[in-house]
Structures are given as C-alpha cells and as structure tokens.
Amino acid sequence: MSGIRNSRTRLLTAAAAGVIAALSLTACNDGSGVRAEDAPTNASATESPSAATSSGSGSSSQDAKSAPSGSKQSTNAPSGNGKSATGGKAVTCEGSHTKMVAAPLKRPVNHMLLTVTNTGSSTCHLYGYPAVRFGDAQSVPPVIQDSHPQAVVTLAPGEAGYASVNLSAADGSGSHGRTEKSLAVYFQGPSGTENVGTAARPALPAKGVHIDDSLKVTYWQQSMDDAISW
Fold first, then answer.
1. How far is the C-alpha of 130 from the C-alpha of 94, rounded, in Å?
2. Which DSSP category does 106 fall into?
3. Is 109 left (phi over 0), alpha (psi -120 to 50) or beta?
C-alpha cells in the first residue's frame, strides 16, 4: 500500500512541475505580462473598437449613445401654419384694426367714397361689401352686383381698400329723401352672411349727407378707380 501512495505522490509532483513549466513558457519575453493563448491571430483582431463600429452600415448601440437624448429638429424649418408675409396670421378686416374715412364726392354726383386702411400688424381680407347704416336705419342697402371684384380684396399693413356709396338718385327720382349725420359700417366674414368684429364709425360732414331709397353700395375694391366707377 505504501508503494501505491508513493507512486501517486510522484505523479502529482510531476503534474505540478509540468504546469509551472507551461506557465513559464507563456511569459512575454519583454516582461509585459502573460499572453492570452486563445487570442485570434488574424488581422481583424487588431482593429480598434471605434473602427469596428464605424464600418457597420446599420445603427449600433454606440450610435444611440452618442445622440443627445431629447434632441429636437431645427426650429428654422418652415412651420406651414398659414401665416401672412408679414409674419402674422391673415385675419378678417374689421373696425378694431382699421381706420375708415367717409368722403362725399363731387363726381360722380351724390356719391361717397369709403376708404378703409389696415392699421394692424397682419394682413387682413375685406370680404363682400360694406354693410352701411345711416342714423337709425333698421336695414342695410343692397349691393351693386356688377361691381363684384375678381378676387377678395387683401390689405397688407398700411394698405387701403375702397367702396363707394350711391347716396341718392342723381335725377331726384328717389323717394323718402332725408339727411343723416351718423354712419356705422359693418364688416363681413368669408361667408358674406354675417357681420364680424367691431363696426367702423367714420365721421360725416357737420351738415350731414342726403340719402333716399335708391341708396346702394359697391363691393370692396382694391383700387379707388374701380370703386368710383359705379
């Protein structure tokens, strides 16, 4: 039995010596440490991690980490929200951001010119025609249908639009003639069937203006010449 134990002891001693010898053989000659025996020896093993990441055609986890979280698109891109060239959204013209002047004309006779100027900061649209009310009138006069413009009158800030009012019959044939000293002008919306915003109240001459039942108005016009041609 002692002989068997001695044999096992010698075998273990020899195995331990073999392991020590193997470790000594793998030591780097330059003293930098132990070389990994299973490291690949081909050229790709020397490629840096950053180079390997950039060579891929798809996105990688490194790409995701490098993008700041919560990054946004550039705010310089057009918003496409229908704004006017002046930077504000185009609105309907009405009394709160316009100034109106009512001026009786010598020619055509018995006519009055309405001039409305956009005093706001945004472009505005003059829809339809002015709904004029002289004094305590309960209704507005009709519009001259043939004066309908080809396009909606549009006023940039500082620009003016025009309409004329035929106050009375030039030949005196109108009925219920009277003198009025106050005027309210209401604006229409896109549908042309409603009043919108604040009315304009332009001043009339101190002596007033003479009107009769032939009273009528033109549609809003882009030019004064078009307005007074009716």
1. 10
2. S
3. beta
Q: How many CA atoms lie within 13 A of 48 on its CB side?
A: 3
What is the residue type of 149? P
Q: Which residue has the tokens 């134990």?
A: 5
> In the structure, what pLDDT confidence band is assigned to residue 170 with cuts at 50, 70 and 90?
confident
Q: Is 10 helix (H, G, I), strand (E, B) or coil?
A: helix
Burial letters for 105-117: b for 16+ Cβ neighbours within 10 Å, e otherwise? eeeeebbbbbbbb
Query: pTM (2 decimals)?
Result: 0.62
Average pLDDT over every residue of 117-143: 96
Does position 140 have pLDDT exceeding 60, yes or no?
A: yes
| pLDDT tens column, 33-47 | 433 334 334 433 334
CA dist 67 and 49 (Å) reads 18
Torsion of CA 152, 156, 159, 160, to 10 degrees: 30
Residue 86 pLDDT grade (very low, low, confident, very high; cuts 50, 70, 90): low
Question: Which class for 185: exposed (0-12), middle (13-18), buried (19 or more C-beta within 10 A)?
Answer: buried
Cα 94 to its chain centre, rounded Å, is 22
Question: Taking the CB of residue 35, how many other CB atoms lie within 10 A of it?
Answer: 10
- Please tell me the total number of residues recorded for the chain in this structure: 230
